C-alpha cells in the first residue's frame, strides 16, 4: 500500500506547504492504523514518519489528541518507542487515553517498571478509567509489582463501576495475585468476573502455574471443564506447564479433539516441552514431527529435550537440520546445544559448534554460553584450555564462569586450578560462604589440612554462614 513512500523518513519540512488545505483530523488515526499493518517493518516505519510529518504540516498534530494517541501507538508498533515517547512528551494536556496508550507502548517493549513510574508521577493529571486501570494492572503483572496493583485495585473499586472494572482489569489482577501466591485474593477477584469467560479461567490457571502451584493450576483447569467452559489454545498452553505425564496426556487428547491439526506451533511447542520435562523424548519428537509449520522455538524445544535427557548426538543432528533448512538459530538454540555437549561430554563437538555459531551464524556469546564452554573443557580435564578461553572472553567473567571452573576442579581434585577459581570468586562474591566451603573440602580431600582450616577460619572472620540444607517428606 505504501510502496510509493520515500526510502527514508520525511522531515516535516520535506512535505510541501499544505497549510490552508481542508483536512479532517479524524482521518489520521485510520491512516496510521493502516500504516502499521504493513507487512514490512521498513515500510511501516517510513509510512508512520511520513504521516507524522503530514499531520504536523496540516495542523492536525499535536492539537488533535486522538491523532496524537494514534501516532504514539503507531510508533510503538513500528518499534520506534523513543519517537512514541517524544510525541507523548510534547502533549500539553495528555488525556486518559494518552496515558493508556503510552503505558501500553512501554509495556509492549518490555519496560513495565517505567510505565508504572510514569503513571505514579502523573497520577494527579488524569482520572483513570477502566481501560487505563486495566493497562496499569497489566504492567504491574509483567513487573510482578504487587503494591501498585493493589492501589489500582482499590481505586477501581471506589471509582469505577464494578462490572466494567473487573471485566477489563480482572484477568490481569487474577494472574498477578495467583502468581504471587495470593490464592484468596485471586479467587475473590475471580468471583466478580464472568464465570463463563475463558480469559478469566486462563488467568487463574496461568497464575497458579507461574507460581509453581501445579496442583491448584490443574484443579482450576478441571473445575473449568466441569462448569462446561470450553478452553482455547491459550488454556492448553498455560496448563501444560503444570502437568505431569498423566494429566499431560489428558490435555494432549483434549488438544487433538478440540484443535485438530498441529498448525498452532505455540500450542504444540508447549506440548513438546511437557513431554520433555517428563523425560518422554520419543513422545516429544513425535509431536515435533506432526507440527505443520515449525518455528525456531519448535526446534529449540526439541534440541533442549535431547540436551536435558542425555541425547547429545541427536541434539547435534537437529542443529545441522536447522542450518540446512535455512532457519537461523538464535541464542536459545546456541545454549541448548552447548548444554547437550556438556551433559554428554562432547567436548570437541561443542568447541566446533561454538566457533560456528560465533563466526558463521554471527551470534554474540552470552555469559551462560561461555560458562558452558568452561564447564565442558574443565570437566574433561582440559583446565589450561578452559583458563585460556576465560582469558580471551570479551567480557569480564562472572561467578557462573568461575563457579564452573571451581566445580570441575573439585570433581578432578585439581587444587591448582581450584585456587585460581576460588581467588576470583572471593573477589566477585565475597559474601558467598558456599565457595569457601567448597575450597575447604578440596584442600581436605588433597590432604592439605592446614589450608582447609585456614579457609574455614575465613568464613568465621567475615561472619559468613553457609545456608543450611533443607528437605521435605510428603505424607501420603
TrEMBL record:
It holds the Pfam family E_motif. One of its GO terms (biological process) is RNA modification. PPR repeats lie at residues 197-231, 264-294, 295-329, 330-365. It comes from the Eukaryota. GO terms for molecular function: RNA binding. Keywords: Repeat, Transit peptide. This is Pentatricopeptide repeat-containing protein. It comes from Zea mays (Maize).
